[in-house]
């Protein structure tokens, strides 16, 4: 049984930690809840005890002969603080240990995940940003808060991510342990399929579900990266901790991706942009008239986003492209690899019942250095980690080359 410590701080989002606790216990993990004194004003001790099936640790002085301020942290295999307030981030960054939770954070040698929740102004305050940067530099994982309704009528960035998303994130961290090989890196991932309007109700698009792109975003987050996810027309839960940019058309995808990739370390073009768009978009629904054929649809070519990114790459920046093909996949992919100036290209064959909308994928990874790696049919989460293994290897090789001059 994996031992998880759930730290709960004093914010209105404390009630959501009850759902997170349930997800941990129902999946077979042993959970020790360590609430702060302020947290107990939102959710009482009996609730935590009932949901965890364990006594709740609240004070350094409780059961002092067992030295709980040291024992709890040492026994933990994962610590999750949700919600994490600005106060706890500040204390953790400065090594303050004035209650049981902060003592636990200082003694834990396992991965620590902070899920912040606070008002936008508090999250964006330079003091909070500095504390977050300090924690990340030391190996802690501070996921980005979600954007949405806060307390009262306020909305903005600072909302606690959905408990299910935090749980899934925590499980990936637990699987990888302290192997945060993308810590300090900014990874941009695009996902989904773009739609090009034909009239107010119709569009040209494709069958991309966005599942592989979202799997890549979640995998990068669990490896410590700061992730910007440019998402086109998907119906998937937001990955906890990603900066999400929603787009619709290929031009919107191009504009957003070019902007956020400018300072990124890695850009992964997992989205499926529409290659063509209608030359004319009708302002009214195109009617089907009896006895007459519709006018032909004239198409314009959409920009090649990956090629634009490849041409603008900085030294040390990596570009991963995707090639979804129905035939002669490797031949077409090798040509795209060169044309787009990508470092890696992920190749898969698509068609009825293949890839789009599925939970598994079979891919071949081609490198600009001539390397080839083929993955048999695997869950898309596993494919994502394998792709990132190759990304990390190339980032490490570049770092070594730079050191050697």
From TrEMBL:
SUPFAM superfamilies (UniProt xref): CoaB-like, Homo-oligomeric flavin-containing Cys decarboxylases, HFCD
Region (Phosphopantothenate--cysteine ligase), start-end ranges: 187-405
InterPro entries assigned to the protein according to its UniProt record, in alphabetical order: CoaB-like_sf, CoaBC, DNA/pantothenate-metab_flavo_C, Flavin_trans-like, Flavoprotein
A GO cellular-component term linked to this record: phosphopantothenoylcysteine decarboxylase complex
Organism per entry: Actinoplanes lutulentus
Biological process annotations from GO: coenzyme A biosynthetic process; pantothenate catabolic process
Gene Ontology MF annotations: FMN binding; metal ion binding; phosphopantothenate--cysteine ligase activity; phosphopantothenoylcysteine decarboxylase activity
Pathway: Cofactor biosynthesis; coenzyme A biosynthesis; CoA from (R)-pantothenate: step 2/5; Cofactor biosynthesis; coenzyme A biosynthesis; CoA from (R)-pantothenate: step 3/5
Protein residues bound to CTP: 275, 285, 322, 336, 340
Protein's UniProt name: Coenzyme A biosynthesis bifunctional protein CoaBC
Keyword Nucleotide-binding: no
Region called Phosphopantothenoylcysteine decarboxylase, residue ranges: 1-186
Cofactor binding, note field: Binds 1 FMN per subunit.
Entries under PANTHER family matching the protein: HOMO-OLIGOMERIC FLAVIN CONTAINING CYS DECARBOXYLASE FAMILY (PTHR14359), PHOSPHOPANTOTHENOYLCYSTEINE DECARBOXYLASE (PTHR14359:SF6)
Name of the gene encoding the protein in the UniProt record: coaBC
General function of this protein: Catalyzes two steps in the biosynthesis of coenzyme A. In the first step cysteine is conjugated to 4'-phosphopantothenate to form 4-phosphopantothenoylcysteine, in the latter compound is decarboxylated to form 4'-phosphopantotheine.
Record EC number: 4.1.1.36, 6.3.2.5
Origin: domain of life: Bacteria
Catalytic activity: N-[(R)-4-phosphopantothenoyl]-L-cysteine + H(+) = (R)-4'-phosphopantetheine + CO2; (R)-4'-phosphopantothenate + L-cysteine + CTP = N-[(R)-4-phosphopantothenoyl]-L-cysteine + CMP + diphosphate + H(+)
UniProt keyword terms in alphabetical order: Decarboxylase, Flavoprotein, FMN, Ligase, Lyase, Magnesium, Metal-binding, Multifunctional enzyme
Domain Flavoprotein: 3-165
Domain DNA/pantothenate metabolism flavoprotein C-terminal per the UniProt entry, residue ranges: 182-393
Protein family per UniProt: In the C-terminal section; belongs to the PPC synthetase family.
